[in-house]
Amino acid sequence: MSAASCLRSEDQFLCCICLDVFTDPVTTSCGHNFCKNCINEHWNSNDQYLCPMCNKVFNKRPELHVNTFISEMVSQFRQEAQQKASSSSSEQQVAKPGEILCDVCTGTKLKALKSCLVCLTSYCETHLEPHLTISRLKRHQLMDPVENLEGRMCMKHDKPLELFCKTDQTYVCTLCSVLDHKTHEFVPLKEEYEGKKAELGKTEAEIQQMIQKRRLKIQEIKQSVNLSKEDADREKAEGVQVFTTLKESVERSLNELIETIEEKQRTTEKQAEDFIKELEQEISELMKRSSEVKQFSRSEDHLHLLQNFPSLKAAPPTKDWTEVRVRPPSYEGTVVRAVTQLEETLSKEMKKLFEALLKRVQQYAVNVTLDPDTAHRKLILSDDGKHVNYGKVKKNLPNNPERFSNCCCVLGKQSFSSGRFYFEVQVKGKTKWDLGVARESIDRKENIPLQPQNGYWAIWLRNGNEYSARNNLPVRLSLKSQLQKVGVFVDYEQGLVSFYDVDAAALICSFTGCSFTEKLYPYFSPCNNNDGKNSAPLIICPVNQTE
């Protein structure tokens, strides 16, 4: 029985004309078997009576005899095949909506396992078996199941689309390559598929990189919010500490202070939430595209991948997050400005607050030295780059683009384009000076007013006791005592420039809401000698933390 079963599993029950299992098998006098209808149609369409198997010529049309043995074997073979199909169909997966159906199944349609580009038919596991076991069918081209097999055939020549015409950027059959496209450049469909698949791999890597950058940006934003919250909490604690010592007359000031700080923090958190929501939306879209790219990259369907490649290659439109920042609000001086309204009552508390504020900004002290390449030719710089004063004689120096030509000033060597920095300058004994920071692109050849529109954030002294600053208009600064040492603090991201009286531990003034977009340099001008009254130098001092 095992031998018979083995024989029945081979392809000897196939008619060599129709390549299907015998139907009404008959035998010729030369001993070969055919379907009765197949051999009759074969002889009807030919002038000679030849055996399709051995090419024996019959003088007259042979008489056909039913092969009883083959008929019985075929009948048994069909019965076993049906039983096997019935048994396996119960184990195979019934096709779900959207899945490719077996074209051969009758009744309940099973899920197709493969599609044949020669037969233009999709087969479930059972109906696919002849293509896996019969030698003639093994030569057929199988692929993962797809719909619209006719669309994979050349409409002009009715042959499979197996080549890619690089000249016309289209898919063609082998006949197209020698007829309509004979002078064009071709590659096998698989080769073009591999190339596009590799490009999709690069696209996938780029999308993953974009996702990672946005995740890092979310972490950066969250960290900025946390730092902002720490600053806010610290400022609130100081405010509470000061205002809890007051009577009911200052209670309102305390509430206003806290509300201002919390409003800044709420604004910061709202901005961060909006950024994060937008980033997460972009990540969702990128992950969706990444999933599509991965799915198509794993596909063995050459044509389907190539047809969808143009829509998959480009990443979804996204925002450039490179320069996006959550700018934590600066609370420097918030409590100070609130308490100054109660100066007479709170002078002692004010002193404590200013000292704490100066101590905080002094933590950002940097080592600043003067840049001789920028110094006006009448300025005299010390060897260590810490002192600058005015000289009457112009030195013979090259008039390079960095050098100031008309203004007696000099920049620091160090530039700053992010973060916070602080430095101190001794102005003792002088009747005139300018001090602050300047952007890199300032005009160094003409006399330009020291104001933010021109790239300067500075204060100055004139006539020994007239201190001023300038935003849109000059502003006189009211100080209780003569300045001996000035501290300059900059928060680049917050757009803040503040000036401090170091000896009095007091805030002189601040430029707020500045928009910095390029490098900032410390700026110094000792001004002219004023007949010897202003001969003292400006001195960049080491920062000593206030106790």
Task: Please characterize this protein's 3D structure.
Helix 7 runs antiparallel to helix 8 and helix 8 packs antiparallel against helix 9. A hairpin with a 4-residue loop joins strand 9 and strand 10. This protein is α+β, with helices and mostly antiparallel strands and 547 residues long. The N terminus is likely disordered. The N and C termini lie far apart (105 Å). Helices cover 36% and strands 18% of the residues. The strands form six sheets. It has a seven-stranded antiparallel β-sheet with strand order 12-13-24-15-20-21-22. Strands 14-23-16-17-18-19 form a six-stranded antiparallel β-sheet, with no helix packed on it. The chain has three domains: 86 residues, 2-Layer Sandwich (Herpes Virus-1), CATH 3.30.40.10; 157 residues; 178 residues, SPRY domain (Jelly Rolls), CATH 2.60.120.
Question: What's a quick, concise take on this entry?
Answer:
The protein is of the alpha+beta class and 547 residues long.
Average pLDDT, rounded to a whole number, is 85
Helix % is: 25-40%
| Unreliable sequence segments | 1-7
Q: How big is the Rg?
A: 45 Å
Strand share of the residues? 15-25%
Biggest sheet, spatial arrangement of strands? 12-13-24-15-20-21-22
Category from helices, strands and their pairing: alpha+beta
Query: Helix count?
Result: 11
